[in-house]
UniProtKB/TrEMBL annotation:
Annotated Pfam families: HTH_18 (PF12833)
SUPFAM superfamilies membership: Homeodomain-like, Regulatory protein AraC
The entry's keywords: DNA-binding, Transcription, Transcription regulation
The organism's place on the tree of life at top rank: Bacteria
Domain HTH araC/xylS-type: 159-255
The name this protein goes by in its record: AraC family transcriptional regulator
Organism: Vreelandella andesensis
PANTHER family: HTH-TYPE TRANSCRIPTIONAL ACTIVATOR RHAS-RELATED, TRANSCRIPTIONAL ACTIVATOR FEAR
GO molecular function terms attached to this record: DNA-binding transcription factor activity; sequence-specific DNA binding
Amino acid sequence: MDQFELHNRNLAPEQVSHSHDFHQLILATCGVTELAMEGQSERVTARRGCLIPSSRHHEYQGDGSNRTLVLDIPVKHLAVLEKGSEIERLFDKPRFFTVPPALNQLTHALTHQLEQCPALQNEIAVLLLRALYMYLQDEPKHIVDQIGARCISERLDLERLDAWLDQHLADDIRVEQLAALCALSPGHFHACFRELTGVTPLAYVQRRRLEHARTLVRHSALSLGHIAMLVGFRDQGSFSRAYRRYFEIAPSSDR
């Protein structure tokens, strides 16, 4: 029997208010979820995660287009883990935290792994918990880095860029356009963007195209050729090849 339950969810734009008798870790790979608990209210995004202690009342509302990794953590099962007591202390109080690029990349990788091998959810959950613990226990050592990242993020508003990208996925998107939205030179924008997200701007755009494409593949009756056009691929062949490389499954099979 699995000790932990790990789910890749799309949180609907409906307000939910509840509590539960287990801890919960919330990480997003795309989209936005508004989450509030005990006077704290923030957005859970690819750059911002959340720890919800057992029995703490909380409310949330997704944007309908998010992909959110939700890990349910029964308190009694933490005792069997290496450094379980230290991990337990992470849940002493409700907590929002900055998700560094390395953790975001790991979240993406583990999300794909979970989709391909659901039977491995417990092993994937343990790996995710250990990675989170390693990051958060070292968090005070990275205060200077975080201040630098905050200065960068003030110029690179990813939520604003995401909103612009979502409206222009069918277009030819250039780095110069994105840099202009942030009032930066293309070279400076490229360097700052990579430092903040861990990927290049064009790799980020490609990932955004494919994430939106997967939603259409799975939840619409549109032809693959039409979907390819809507998210900016020149033809169905190049779309299918990129889709298979990213998700490790052909769009026709994923449908």
